[in-house]
Design goal:
Chain A: This is Vacuolar protein sorting-associated protein 33B. The complex is a heterodimer. Chain A is an alpha/beta fold. Chain A is built from 29 helices and 14 strands. By secondary structure, chain B is α+β, with helices and mostly antiparallel strands. Classes of the chains: A alpha/beta, B alpha+beta.
């Protein structure tokens, strides 16, 4: 498919009102807005941070980092030198929180390297891009930039014969065997046809031997030049960095293929080289351990230079440490938008039902969107009220015109009106989105779904839950949702009773087809959906697990393939970590008291609770029971720079990098943002991909190809 | 002195070490200088900073003896110097841009000057060569007008302007002065064309046997005796022959296409063979009559250490590195590596002794690659030693390529696995797959679960049949069953699908997985049923799930067939009722729905009847079922049909606070005023209770 060169939306909504505020009049206007907010009879949104609305304009002055010369092994690192001079802190969002490093630098590095690589094939060329790379690429280098570097036509890789008249073909792909095989076939077809072309494959973020082996086997190794585009990290937002590798989850956890481990290690190495070293690393999970090892090896290979770190602590966590959280329905605005509309690479497409027009609109969802940044972390039940209040305020700001003289009016139109209109546009979009959500989510069935989830989390009325799930399956409500509920039931109950397992599975297969036998096999392998083994007591299981963990000769990788049923121990963990607040207590979602608010006060995400506890204790001490139930594999390492201990109260010490291996959900990000505010620190999330229940389970389906 | 020969003329055989410490003090090496060394180990002249053409910073002329003693030093006050050179009688010639040549003695004393003529001073000097012949020292100049002016003996100046070179548009790619037949001639290359210029004519010449790939001659040099000529072409070939261009000595492909810095003739010390030396940045190649070349790597700025290493003066080399403060991994470690590579070739010592010696010496060195040393050992035919040395390599990944090369595949595989780099494991697996026969390959994988699992992943995508074989070998019937199921839904033909499913059933039974076996048998029955019905009724059904099949049958009115499935496949009552009432409501067959509701007591209750009618906007039908719902669902049912009174009645009757609240929340303050009062009163009593 040829992609047409449509003029992209110029991302107008990215403008901050703040950037346009400088005259005294505007300050007055701000003052007025401030009074509107604070002076409102009823705190309209979040009583504890009314200042958020107008804090942005007074961002901190740029803090320059001088870059010490580093001998650079790869182009990326050497490119660091050229751009690092302009590094500065991003806007602070609330007063007592440390500023975040400027991650846009990563984009510039990636862009510069891509341009360099494209220039390695001089002259006009057609560019073929892996479908799942298109959105990330667009964030780095748009069509105009590509055209400037002599990219003639852009195609999506479709693994079909191509129609291209160009003499030079460039392929920008993930290192997948299938794609390389397809390219080899193209080259061989050209050879047969006596056609001479130049071919270049740019693998991103790295090449694998395996791919080169395919080129060799297909006899085209000499005909094709290969390169690596070390595009490890895409900053999705001020505090979200993504590797954009959704396949990490299935490859690593289901198929036992750990080739992405080095990629994750390299991503950390990149962050470290650009933003400074870390003083402390914590982690849990087998993959986390391996990533840490790979990162450490990379560090040893490179030169060691102590540099003022921009974040001091790192927490690595495997997705399979906590499967419960991503299986829950999301009810925080950003998560809900993701569940319903699917946020792709930081942007979402709102359909006609939201835009109330006949076309769809693509919107970037990040902190640059002033409206969104205020509601993204809110429980959905608060959002609508907030938005309508916001609309009223906006009206007030518009009405301000009435009292102005000509000069003021001129200034207002020139500087302010655009911003207000922008805000207006965004506001109406988000109101549209919440209306659409309300329609879908306030229905009886969604309420019952949530009720069932909460019962499962609480371990309450399990029989009723099973009946509900059964009905859900029988009525063919949703293939994924049914599966999700089954998994939640299994994890929270440490597996299903044989009788229930067989009956539910049989019914599921009747509804959705026998192919799902394989899906069920996958789910069992991951410990997501299991049949309780009759007669096997907990201690037997535990000794098995214990042996596996301690048995060094088994090797680092071997246990990855063990299909040994893992006990989730959710109930015991929940009790020990107080994940589920006592029922019956009122939970005011407008004034959250803990991270449980992201699930309507019913459950604190296990992953986030672990992070909180470890940071609080500065290690795993006192959590032995918990880690044992999580199959061990925890670690805490003190990094090289001991001098950073002395500056324990610097900003950097209060920035924590959390890396989710296998994906993380928006609910978890919201929970961590909340935790940060509570503790006066900031979390930066690095994830292999943004996930949610649907993505997680879809990755495990085996009903097609 | 050798350290700086890159910029001076190559004077003799190559392997020289620092003989004398030069008395000069150069911050930037000789980059900024014009340099001339006199023949036969005579003095050396330097003009420092002549590139800086500001009047305030005058260049400095310095003269040294070849042993490094300063002989003279004075600021240069004349014009811009293009070239320095020495006469056979050790006079220094300074050729200026305007064609004036200044003559100094060895001690820097000015002797005289002469001009190279008007034409030269008008069109300025482009390039100069100072040459020696039996007739004395000569000067040849290429002017800005691309003409050559030549004086064979500066002590007896007779200026000769040589004929024009046809087609010369810019400076020639290279040129040289020859002395032949008691005459000085100029050999000029213009692209691939060669010309000899003498007093009267410009004659095109062709070197015999010059490789035709060349499109340009980029460098040439004549031996000191004017006997031999070497030409370097842009294709990287060095042609060597006699300078009269009658005879070819040899031609060698250096495979380097970048232009060299310098080329010179030398005689190899032992063989006395004339050879050409070509130098690039960091590389020096000696080519002679045979096709083989000798390469020297000139690392960084220092050639000294490699020279010492070459002479096996390792301790001295290490001391020099320490003295020069070379970073460890570039200096000491590198020397140690050379030492180790040398050590492993010592035939008389045992593997154990060498391995131990190497490990002890190299223990603390940074950036040592043991695999490189091991490779050397292997190349010297010492495989066992190589394996021992590899054990010291801390990164298991580094060990793998050599192990493969040595055909130590099982070890390579375990090392790859140990490295944790799946990609590497995969590479070894692929290598083994091509190397071993199938049986051995499978057997090896069997002992390496990680490798086996990876290979299975590969087969899943690329080689389905191999996958089957692997499962068979392991008697993994469960996986085989899954394999056949997967294969079945990829196949379009019904018979093939059924056959594959039958294989799956067999495997599942072998795996003692009765559940999967029975389910698969059901699927086979379903497929046959679907096919039969497709043929009879023309409805597309094959491949649908049981649920979807029944939905389709009900929606086209094939109730009997749907019911047959319901019985044959032990479909739960609930599912069947859901399906049927949904299908009937969709067709708005309210009469049939009512009949169905009366066939027996509904297993799903009657609320779904109410809801399904409301969904299709039939409140009238919905109301028929309200009375039949269970007490717990009464309120919901009334609310569904919009009967507030009824809902309130039911809620109050049940004295259920939350139900009362639900009804209240649905009441409108204007129309249901009385009702709300009643509800509120009931709520109060309910709470009290």
């Amino acid at each position: 498919m040829l992609i047409s060169y449509q003029k992209k939306n110029k991302k107008k909504h990215h403008h901050l009102i703040s950037s346009q505020l400088h005259s005294s009049l505007q300050k007055e206007l701000l003052q007025f807005l401030l009074e509107c907010c604070v002076g409102a009879a009823e705190p309209f949104y979040h009583p504890r941070r009314p200042h958020e609305v107008f804090l942005n304009p007074f961002c901190r002055p740029a803090c320059q980092h001088r870059c010490k010369t580093r001998s650079a092994s790869s182009q990326v690192y050497s490119a660091v030198q050229s751009v690092v001079g302009s590094l500065h802190m991003a806007h602070t969002e609330w007063k007592d929180a440390p500023g975040l490093p400027d991650f846009s630098l990563l984009k510039r590095l990636a862009r510069d390297q891509l341009i360099f690589l494209l220039e390695q094939l001089p002259g006009k060329k057609d560019l073929f891009i892996d479908a799942d790379l298109m959105s990330p690429l667009d964030r780095i280098a748009n069509v105009t930039i590509l055209k400037q570097h002599e990219v003639d036509k852009l195609y999506k890789v479709e693994l079909k014969p191509i129609v291209s008249s160009s003499d030079q073909l460039c392929f920008l792909i993930r290192p997948r065997i299938q794609t390389v095989k397809w390219i080899s076939d193209l080259v061989n077809a050209d050879k047969v046809a006596g056609r001479f072309r130049r071919y270049k494959i740019i693998f991103t973020p790295q090449k694998f031997y395996a791919c080169e082996t395919v080129l060799e086997e297909q006899g085209v190794y000499g005909d094709v030049t290969t390169d690596e585009w070390n595009f490890y990290i895409l900053p999705l937002d001020d505090d979200i960095l993504s590797l954009e590798l959704p396949e990490f989850f299935r490859d690593n956890f289901l198929e036992g293929d750990q080739r992405w481990v080095t990629t994750a290690g390299s991503a950390l190495r990149l962050l470290q080289s650009v933003y400074g070293s870390f003083s402390k690393v914590y982690g849990i999970g087998r993959c986390a351990k391996m990533v840490y090892e790979s990162w450490r090896e990379l560090m040893e290979d490179g030169e060691q230079r102590t540099r003022q770190p921009e974040f001091a602590k790192v927490f690595l966590v495997d997705r399979d440490v906590d499967f419960v959280t991503p299986l829950c329905s999301q009810v925080v605005y950003e998560g809900l938008v993701d569940d319903l509309f699917r946020i792709k690479c930081g942007s979402v497409e709102f359909g006609p039902d939201v835009t109330s027009s006949d076309k769809s609109i693509k919107v970037m969802l990040n902190s640059q969107d002033k409206v969104f940044s205020e509601i993204r972390n809110e429980h959905f039940s608060n959002v609508f009220g907030f938005l309508s209040q916001k609309a009223k305020n906006l009206q007030t700001a518009y009405d301000k015109r009435r009292g102005m003289d000509i000069q003021q009016m001129k200034a207002f139109v020139a500087d302010e009106l655009k911003g207000l209109k922008q805000e207006h546009r965004l506001l109406s979009l988000h109101i549209g989105a919440s209306e659409s959500m309300m329609k879908k989510k306030t229905k009886q069935d969604f309420q019952e779904l949530l009720k069932t989830e909460h019962s499962l989390l609480e371990g309450f009325e399990i029989r009723e839950c099973i009946t509900y799930i059964e009905e859900h399956i029988n009525r063919q409500v949703s293939m994924i949702d049914s599966l999700r509920l089954l998994c939640l039931l299994s994890i929270t109950e440490n597996g299903l009773l044989s009788k229930d397992y067989r009956s539910l599975k049989a019914q599921y297969l009747q509804s959705y087809g026998i192919e799902h036998l394989l899906t069920f096999a996958n789910l069992r392998q991951l410990g997501l959906l299991e049949e309780q083994q009759a007669g096997e007591t907990l201690t037997v299981m535990e000794s098995k697990v214990g042996k596996l963990v301690n048995d060094k000769t088994v090797g680092k990788l071997t246990d990855a393939f063990s299909s040994l049923a893992k006990k989730s121990n959710f109930r015991a963990l929940s009790k020990r970590l107080a994940l589920v607040p006592k029922s019956g207590e009122e939970y005011d979602l407008r004034v959250p008291r803990d991270m449980a608010y992201v699930f309507s006060g019913a459950y604190i995400p296990l992953s986030c609770k672990l992070i909180e506890q470890v940071l609080e204790r500065d290690g795993w001490t006192g959590m032995e029971e918990v880690t044992r139930m999580l199959n061990g594999q925890e670690f805490a390492v003190t990094g090289g720079s001991s001098s950073s201990e002395a500056r324990s109260k610097t900003d950097a010490q209060r920035i924590v990098l959390v890396m989710f291996l296998g994906g993380c959900t928006f609910s978890e990000i919201s929970a961590l943002r909340f935790l940060g505010k509570e503790r006066g620190c900031r979390f930066i999330v690095v994830t292999t991909a943004i996930t949610n229940s649907s993505r997680l389970l879809e990755a495990l389906l085996d009903n097609s190809a | 002195f050798v350290a700086y020969r890159g910029q001076t003329e190559l004077l003799g055989p190559l392997r020289k070490i620092e003989l004398y410490e030069m008395g000069w003090n150069l911050k930037d090496g000789l980059r900024e200088c014009l340099v001339a060394a006199a023949p036969y180990g005579g003095p050396i002249a330097l003009l420092k900073g002549h590139y800086r053409r500001s009047p305030s910073a005058r260049p400095q002329l310095e003269i040294y003896s070849s042993s490094g003693l300063p002989l003279a030093s004075f600021p240069w006050k004349s014009g811009v110097v293009k070239q320095l050179g020495w006469t056979v009688s050790d006079d220094l010639l300074c050729v200026q841009e305007d064609g004036t040549v200044l003559v100094y003695d060895l001690w820097g004393g000015f002797k005289r000057h002469f001009s190279m003529g008007n034409e030269v001073s008008q069109s300025q000097v482009l390039e100069t060569k100072i040459f020696h012949s039996p007739y004395g020292t000569g000067v040849a100049i290429l002017t800005g007008a691309l003409r050559f002016t030549l004086a064979t003996n500066i002590d007896d100046i007779k200026l000769r302007r040589l004929p024009e070179v046809p087609g010369l548009q810019e400076a020639p790619s290279c040129w040289a002065v020859l002395t032949q037949d008691r005459q000085s001639k100029v050999l000029v290359a213009n692209g691939s064309q060669l010309f000899i210029l003498d007093n009267t004519a410009c004659t095109p010449v062709t070197p015999p046997g010059l490789s035709p790939q060349a499109s340009s001659i980029v460098h040439m040099c004549v031996s000191f005796s004017y006997k031999y000529l070497a030409l370097l072409t842009d294709s990287g070939h060095v042609w060597m022959g006699t300078s009269n261009l009658k005879e070819k000595l040899s031609e060698v492909d250096t495979k380097i296409k970048t232009p060299p810095k310098q080329m010179a003739w030398c005689r190899r010390p032992k063989s006395q063979q004339p050879s050409a030396v070509v130098m690039w940045d960091g590389l020096l190649i000696v080519v002679g009559e045979c096709k083989e070349t000798i390469q020297y790597h000139l690392d960084d700025d220092s050639v000294l250490v490699p020279e010492l290493v070459y002479r096996k003066l390792y301790p001295l080399a290490i001391e020099v590195c320490r003295y020069l403060k070379t970073p460890e991994y570039q200096g000491v470690s590198r020397v140690l590596k050379h030492w180790a590579c040398y050590k492993v070739q010592q035939k008389e010592e045992s593997d154990e002794v060498i391995a131990k010696a190497v490990s002890v010496k190299l223990a603390d060195a940074a950036g040592i690659s043991y695999s490189e040393i091991a490779t050397k050992a292997y190349e010297s035919g010492r495989t066992e030693l190589a394996i021992k040395l590899l054990e010291f390599e801390p990164r298991s990944g580094e060990q793998v390529p050599l192990l493969l090369k040595m055909k130590k595949s099982p070890l390579a595989l375990s090392k790859a696995i140990e490295s944790g780099d799946t990609d590497l494991v995969y590479t070894v697996v692929m290598y083994l797959k091509n190397e071993l026969n199938r049986g051995d390959f499978f057997m090896m994988l069997r002992n390496q679960p990680v490798a086996l699992s990876l290979y299975k992943q590969f087969c899943k995508h690329q080689e389905q049949d191999t996958l089957k074989d692997l499962f068979n070998q392991d008697d993994d019937h469960e996986e085989l069953g899954n394999f056949y199921v997967k294969a079945s839904y990829k196949d379009q033909r019904l018979e093939a699908r059924v056959a594959l499913l039958q294989s799956a059933v067999d495997e599942y039974y072998k795996a003692k997985n009765d559940f999967s076996a029975k389910t698969t048998e059901d699927e086979m029955r379903l497929l046959r049923f679907q096919r039969k019905l497709e043929e009879e009724k023309g409805e597309q059904l094959v491949g649908f799930s049981l649920h979807d099949t029944m939905t389709t049958l009900l929606s086209v009115g094939l109730h009997k067939h749907a019911e047959q499935l319901y019985k044959d496949f032990r479909v739960p009552d609930k599912r069947f009722w859901w399906l049927k009432l949904k299908a009937l409501a969709e067709k708005e067959d309210w009469e049939e729905l009512e009949k169905f509701g009366k066939t027996k007591k509904s297993p799903v209750g009657y609320l779904p009847f109410v809801e399904v009618c409301i969904k299709h906007h039939n409140k009238y039908e919905a109301k028929k079922y309200v009375s039949k719902v269970t007490p717990e669902q009464k309120v919901k049912a009334h609310l569904a049909v919009g009967d507030m009174e009824g809902a309130a009645e039911a809620a109050i009757e049940r004295r259920n606070e939350s139900e009362i609240s639900t009804v209240l929340s649905r009441c409108s303050a204007t129309t249901d005023h009385l009702l709300m009062e009643r509800l509120n009163r009931a709520k109060a009593t309910a709470v009290k209770k």
